[in-house]
Amino acid sequence: MSSKDTGASGSSNVPPQIYEQDQLLPIANVGRIMKKILPANAKIAKEGKETMQECVSEFISFVTGEASDKCRKERRKTVNGDDIVWAIDRLGFDNYAQPLKRYLDRYREAEGDQRANINIVHDRVGYNEENEERLHSYINTQQDQRYNHDRNTDP
Questions:
Q1: What pTM did the predictor assign?
Q2: How many CB atoms lie under 10 A from the CB of residue 108?
């Protein structure tokens, strides 16, 4: 029986087949991130993007698996940012753990600020979808500027 076949009851005991492309980050996203780091006139070969796609996807699976094991042992169902930082450190990527922890702290701080800003805007001008979209766009722009500034000034 193939993985697409079902039994008489209409359900299958065979787990769905996981295709390789379903486990990889989208190649367009990988290419976009690579382009942000490289000089504007740099070109990236398709093979380079595909290799990076496989590497980062494997890295994410590796780290997530370790964090998930920790959560399972602690009888928790949700992996959070702290679990990811812990896993990165535990797996020997300690050069990344501290900067990631700082980023996570700043992100959480900005999220708190964002929620406060949203509440202020709702109180002053009232809630509607257009105001909400404009506010989120503005806040995302501010966070991007803060991130780029921090990235250029952090040791």
A1: 0.59
A2: 11
